[in-house]
Amino acid sequence: MLVKQLSVFLENTPGRLYSVTSVLAENDVKIRALMLADTADFGVLRLIVDEPEKTLKILQEKGYAAKITNAIAIEVCDSPFQQMQKILKLLSEQNINVEYMYAFSGETPGKALVVFRVDDLETAMEYLKREKMTV
Amino acid sequence: MYWNPKYECMPRDEIKQLQLERLRQTLERAYHNVPHYRRIMQEIGFEPEDLKSLEDLRNLPFTSKKDLRENYPYGMFAVSLSEVIRIHSSSGTTGKPTVVGYTRHDINIWSEIMARTLVTAGVHKSDVIQNAYGYGLFTGGLGIHYGAEKIGATIIPVSGGNTKRQVMIMKDYGTTVLTCTPSYSLHIAETIEEMGISKDELKLRIGIFGAEPWSENMRREIEERLNISAIDIYGLSEIIGPGVAIECPYKNGLHVHEDHFIVEVIDPKTGEILPPGERGELVFTSLTKEALPMIRYRTGDISRIIEEPCPCGRTSVKIGRIEGRTDDMIIIRGVNVFPSQIEHVLLEIGQTEPHYQLVIDRIGYLDILEVQVEVSEKMFSDDVKSLEILSKKIQNEIESTLGISVKVKLVEPKTFERSEGKAKRVIDKRKI
Lengths: 135, 432
Fold this sequence. Notes:
CATH topology of the largest domain in chain B: Rossmann fold
Strand order of the largest sheet of chain B: 4-3-5-6-7-8-9-14-13
CATH architecture of the largest domain in chain B: 3-Layer(aba) Sandwich
Number of domains of chain A: 2
Low-confidence stretches of chain B: none
Number of domains of chain B: 2
Radius of gyration of chain B: 23 Å
Number of helices of chain A: 4
Oligomer: heterodimer
Mean pLDDT of chain B: 92
Shape of chain B: globular
Largest interface: A-B, 21 and 19 residues
CATH topology of the largest domain in chain A: VC0802-like
Structural class of chain B: alpha/beta
CATH class of the largest domain in chain B: Alpha Beta
Order of helices and strands of chain A: EHEEHEHEEH
Helix content of chain A: 25-40%
Helix content of chain B: 25-40%
Distance between the termini of chain B: 54 Å
Shape of chain A: globular
CATH class of the largest domain in chain A: Alpha Beta
CATH superfamily of the largest domain in chain B: ANL, N-terminal domain
Number of helices of chain B: 11
Radius of gyration of chain A: 16 Å
Largest sheet of chain A: 6 strands, antiparallel
């Protein structure tokens, strides 16, 4: 499944994360998953939310540098290694680079959702579909 | 193409000899006719005949806007008012206006300089020049006008404003050369697009832009949007008006008309003369002006001297693009830094309207310059790697421009206050 992931630029200083999540809370945005990448000076917060376009607008109005990027979400068994391996092998065979990934527990009991950000989204989607991965 | 090859391509040693002769005459005239110059020369025990070589010029004190204001309106004139056939003046927004005057000979010289300036920029007799510089007390309009008439081009004295009419004239009258400020040219470009006129309907081929600072990035944008060659022109009324220096089509510096002006670059803090290539304040001395001779006039403009020979064949030294004003200068580890230099780098990197702040601190005995840059929507990428590359690129470009190491920090948008007037660009935390 193609998901719209929201990315937000944050300075790496105390209170910045709180400030952005406060905006989200005030606007009743439901966060399904969250991941924070950091460097010494700044971080990029990545979010899967229920209404990405609306949330993007809210954040931009509040002055955040934010944008939507497409990522792939795949449901895997909660003991994921076999399935995960299969996905990663497939991507590697197609010479597709995984820029980053993160996982969270999905709505189906016993299953987890893994979010992949890859450099060649189209090819990745095509092969994953062909291999009948639940994407 | 040259207008006056004798002077434009004169061998260096002959230029220097000519400058020396003309400088001597200028000092004589100033000493005998302007009480201010006589006083400052007497104060240091200098007589015009003490000038033996061009190097002796450096012994003379500078002239500044302050001197012109103190001698307002005509105190610095070296001729009686009956000899003066034209007055121009500044708007006086930052104090008393500065008044400049021209004798008939001065107007002739200025026309000659402007003719040369236009031809250097690539203008021919057959061109149609739309002059959108203001006509009036400002020297821009009439300066271009007289030069254009001198070379026999067709001049349209439209002056500034009424952009739709400008576009209509440009299209219907077949304008080939546009002269105005660089920002106004972009406004015209926008209006052309809004009016649904295509670039093919215009005959425009050259733009001559000046009277405000601009960047290479802006040049590219203007050239692309108007489909022209954009040329940088420099001048100031105190020295003569437009035409003190002009780019040739090689666009690697502005040729100074050295048979009429001597250019120096000084450290604005110490007054010391800087070697070619180093950035500092431009200082001009007039060599042929009768009504208002100027000796070592401090322009407040930041640039550098370029001595490398130009492929166009002109032998004059050139000055670089104006990079800022001395009023904004900061000194870091002994190096003069102008916020505008950093702004230029950010513009080059592709930020249309960079918001940044310079934070200077002293840790131990070392000055640290941190450049904080707001991440715009356009710069932001989900990818941490590209943000780090961007930050590194900004750092490298700034370091190679300034010649000192800096730290670059990307910050969130709207971190810095937006003010109506001048933005606060510099936070100096040093305790000295």
